[in-house]
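Lecture notes, unit on binding sites. The following record was shown on slide 14. It pairs a sequence with flavin-adenine dinucleotide.
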Amino acid sequence: MPLAIWWIRRDLRLSDNPALATALREGYAPLPLFILDPRLLRNRFTAPMRLGFLMAGLRALEADLRARGAYLLVRRGDPGEVLHQVLAESGAERIFAEEDYTPYARERDARVARALPLQCVLGLTVHHPSNVIKAEGEPYTVFTPFSKAWKALPLPRPLGEVPARWPTLPRLPGESLPVLPPPALFPAGEAEARRRWRAFLEDSICDYARARNRLDLEGTSRLSPYLRFGMLSVRQVVHEALEWALEHPTARHGVEAFVNEIIWREFYQAILYHFPHVTREAFRPQFRHLPWREAPEDLGAWQAGRTGYPIVDACMRQLQATGWMHNRGRMIAASFLVKDLLINWQAGERWFMQHLVDGDVAANNGGWQWTAGVGTDAAPYFRIFNPVLQGRKFDPEGRFIRRWLPELARVPAAYVHAPWTMPPDLQARLGVQVGQDYPLPIVDHALARARALSVYRQG
Ligand SMILES: Cc1cc2nc3c(=O)[nH]c(=O)nc-3n(C[C@H](O)[C@H](O)[C@H](O)COP(=O)(O)OP(=O)(O)OC[C@H]3O[C@@H](n4cnc5c(N)ncnc54)[C@H](O)[C@@H]3O)c2cc1C
């Protein structure tokens, strides 16, 4: 059987894997290869927890391959050089990979494809960004029409299972994977991803539309790290969710809301694909030169979860401790940095990438530009989250806050979102001195809001 390299990047799964399936369909024995690219292992966005998750995911994939009589070849170096070498050593004729849309990946793949027989196939998104476009061929820059066009396209069917026995492969020498601590909240691997997905479908999707915004409930799927590294196929997820809704009419509303979030993921991937400059600057030109504050102390307080606004601080400490943050929390924390502290959204974008296990250039950049009101979708800049009201609405009893801010563990619900309003005698009784045991607010929200509005208006 002729040999082809299956170049694994962010598609760490065997089922419904278009790169792998294409190699098999075309009659090749796929040689699984992962390249430890120094530029991906160490850059301004590197997050130790995300790397730990990736390495654990590769180890899980290695075990799945071994169970089928195959192995994972790991090499280190410049991808073009490594591929050239492995082609020469193995006699492989082709290279198959899943297409990736970041500017770095596209430049890398174009360079490789000029010199070597690389074929990239669709798998990162359900629909390719170049297929979800306006009638006149322009890309969408607003979510709702994008989602309508996306839904109007026929849904591709997931591909079948991979054969239980792998075709025979030549044994090539490789490196072992670096050992890094994986995030406790997210055991890696395809089997775990599938288990979590099925549990979410069976137990929680019915309630998703109602519970998804609540910080104190586990109302969302927490599948983002698995989707980020393709341990779960997004196409399979959408397909199975829609099937589930057909069989369980009470789940229909939840499934619709869930698929809508998947379409947000597809939307931001498409924005990055069509407008790669968003990684460097605001999408909207009028907001590229806002007079951001240079305020390292405020930035440090935000990063450490010590702003004095409990809902912001709880979210930021959750991020540091677990490598994950709830979507509502991401919006609240991001809004606070940009609008209340008037600090450049790119500082927040970087911090999130340095800590999120699901850190994804497209989704993170999209989320930050949206929250800052400088991005594609029509999020008006004058919508400024009030951190106290957000807390009361999405963590009504303060349970989420108390979980992440042990210093406020005894503060009653009436004060937990604004502890500085607690009468001094109550503070004394509870043993929580605001300003000492927990910080006073580093800005006054009403004044900060007025400042942001005036800066943006002149933007
Ligand atoms: C400032 C900011 C930064 C963000 N950074 C990232 C990031 O780096 N990586 C990332 O995957 N998501 C990011 N998001 C989107 C969203 O917060 C997470 O996808 C979500 O919280 C993951 O939790 P979940 O898997 O339980 O989501 P669920 O609610 O269960 O949603 C299912 C899936 O849909 C996708 N999704 C959901 N919401 C969004 C969204 N708004 N944009 C894009 N995709 C979405 C994710 O893949 C998610 O796993 C960011 C949002 C904001 C506001």
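Take-home: The chain has three domains: 3-124, 191-274, 285-458.
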